[in-house]
């Protein structure tokens, strides 16, 4: 599909289109037809990704030409991609997100006319802004023993700041009033707590918005009790994954949910749903989600009027309920993708009872590729945590480690099992797995500012002694930055 | 409150009662009155925990006498506890859970008569079985740099097996038909994947139940789209935290939600709601949640008939809507805690239209305190991951680390930033934080079976060389158990 034959004088924006797998090509074609009929100022550049690419042997599922096309255009509209079982390990969707550092996942959740749910009539209209690249999604996992698995949950101050600023920028662009930060800061004080602290630090710059923090489990609860209270929710990756799908369910489900993925170098717009292989190729798919993603894309390139025309045509089509696809119709009354598409096109120029929101350009702060490394004023090494494998009971293990620490610059502070102190005994009835964390504190903290090599000899000496008797698999330095402990204490430590 | 004056011949079971904070004492008193009126075979032993205890300076919030009482009785009924800001770091609730290793959090979610929600009439009746002590709740957190926070997500095979067996045991005890395991195994293959694998391994022993696995975000979605499809859901700690509060919202909210926390040595029954300080002491609180928890307790001690009598009295009270507390009444028509309690007592012996489910004793498998350490047949050290802090760009850093590895038994495999490979470059536009993972592979794997000291010298030599130039803070051994890599690859690694 090239430039419109009746080329108008408007400059067209090039967008990479990924028709993807399953129903992907059908909903892509429908979306393109509607956008063409609406004279959307877009020129498509078709590109491959997904199942066929995996099957050709490329384990990322995304060929170089596709990456180059998105790099060049900075914009992509993407249908669902499959990662076929047995080909490559990582999903093509995650590859695209990480390759272009698309850190902000924007998930609008708005009650649509004609789409009846248990929450209809309550005027749900919120956006969930999900951090899209950090957290447990870093995928850094190590089996610590044959039975104990570990995943690193990483959250960073610049990562939190980026997504929080994106949430305020979005609130400004959509004339929203209220930004809620949802975390599990009460339990994970350093990681989830970091997002809360950054929110509280950055928030005052955006004092025109009502701001609050909510614990993520309460947020999930409130989303089903009183969803209309939310306007913009900003949250970390895993939390956002769960609540964005929850919230989509409140207004009709993933089948009609669009999303955008924004970064400094590119923006990708997509349907949230999967490739629905069971109805692929039958002309039955509902293109609403991808069309809604395309409307987000139009607004992203400041084509606000065309976006509103298409959105109102979609709204009135849904509201009137004529020629809807099977998923939105009473049984036996659904039409095919083509008839629905024709209906939306026929409705171009008409307005629904639900006005489009007022939008202006979403301006994301630009970030340097390399974040400044911040050296604290003072930095001390105060100890190390050594994670080791043992079938011993905690008393025997603790005493043995105490002995090992003798004649070293360290003393054993305690031993914990899955975060609960088991030596010295607290009287708790902890079930022991074969993975212990032994915390050794330096009798005398060692300043680290002068040279990172400081403390090496001491650590090495202790670890050698431990390794002679126990199988360790993981070491963490315990540091103090600017006089403040940069680590948490285990449960039960006095 | 001692043994009933009209002591009948039934042997009474001693239960530790924690009246707790805020509205806690009021709902506890109401619950005790109803149970006494129903001749429940319970003798209460009152114990302290919560805000007052923290304020006396005990940083756990739970005095020794309380721990001893629960240890002795093995049973507790607990009202909400507060962790006042500024006293102690960890919550008293978490302390109790971890001290007694109460690994199974049982959250029944059932539509109640008279409690109207958007989902009323759909017959929601499920139980969420949440793992209660592992996962990110281990609270093991380390600042890796001044801007990068890390939390360890730990999941263990015995931990997963315990909770999965508990879910099947519960399904059997409540004559349920269908157990769904909800994880994020598609992203976290080693940790969340472990729970899925254990479910698939243990499941066949319980072939009388329908069994399936669902991705947690889809589970949250389905819970608001079609909650009536679920019967028993078993899931990991963080996932369970979110979806159990979500699910409670579907049937009327946390205000009326009970839960139990089960372990090998004790069981604790509680209301899920908080201490509601704003209405504390006013005689307005709704005791339904704690009363429902007490009903669970009665069934736990096999007092099935009394449990049903109390449950039916509660159901009919709610159904008839006479003398309900303010939270369940039209504005201005609520009564106080005492009047509601009197009404439930007056209804003892009557039955509602909603039958109680059929229950039998929930039999949990007993576990040894110390799990067997499983040594793989072969164990090799194949490399190490060194996490280090640097303000360098990835090319410069990568080349420098490659140089360091020269003349060591290792070669640099690659460098990643938050799980995405940045050296050798993949062309991706990764935003760099000052925390890198350098993966060094041994040119020749080292067998570890013979002695855990094997490889020590090699690691020590490499780490010394790295430490001379870079500030590392975290090391992970890369092992191969029985010929299988015990670690995941970063995104982008070819």
Report on the architecture of this protein:
The first copy, chain A, is of the alpha/beta class. The first copy, chain A, is built from 13 helices and 18 strands. A ten-stranded mixed beta sheet of chain A has the order 2-1-3-12-11-4-5-10-8-9, sandwiched between helices. Chain A has a six-stranded antiparallel beta sheet with strand order 15-14-16-13-17-18, sandwiched between helices. In chain A, helix 1 packs across helix 9 (288-300), helix 1 runs parallel beside helix 11 and helix 7 runs parallel beside helix 8 (237-250). The longest helix of chain A has 17 residues, at 157-173. In chain A, 58% of the residues are buried. Residues 1-7 of chain A have low confidence and may be disordered. At the A-B interface, helix 4, strand 6, strand 7, helix 5 and helix 6 of A face helix 4, strand 6, strand 7, helix 5 and helix 6 of B. Strand 17 (471-481) of chain A pairs antiparallel with strand 17 of chain B.
Features:
18 strands, homodimer, 13 helices, 10-stranded mixed beta sheet, disordered N terminus, 6-stranded antiparallel beta sheet, alpha/beta, 494 residues
N/C terminus separation of chain A: 69 Å
Number of strands of chain A: 18
Binned strand content of chain A: 15-25%
- Oligomeric form: homodimer
For the CA atoms, what is the radius of gyration of chain A? 27 Å
Low-confidence stretches of chain A: 1-7
Main beta sheet strand tally, sense and closure of chain A = 10 strands, mixed
Largest interface, Cβ cutoff 8 Å: A-B, 136 and 137 residues
Shape of chain A: elongated
The mean pLDDT of chain A is 93
Q: What class do helices, strands and sheet pairing of chain A give?
A: alpha/beta
User: What percentage of residues of chain A falls in helices of 4 or more residues?
Assistant: 25-40%
How many H/I helical runs of chain A? 13
Task: Tell me the strand order in the biggest sheet of chain A.
Answer: 2-1-3-12-11-4-5-10-8-9
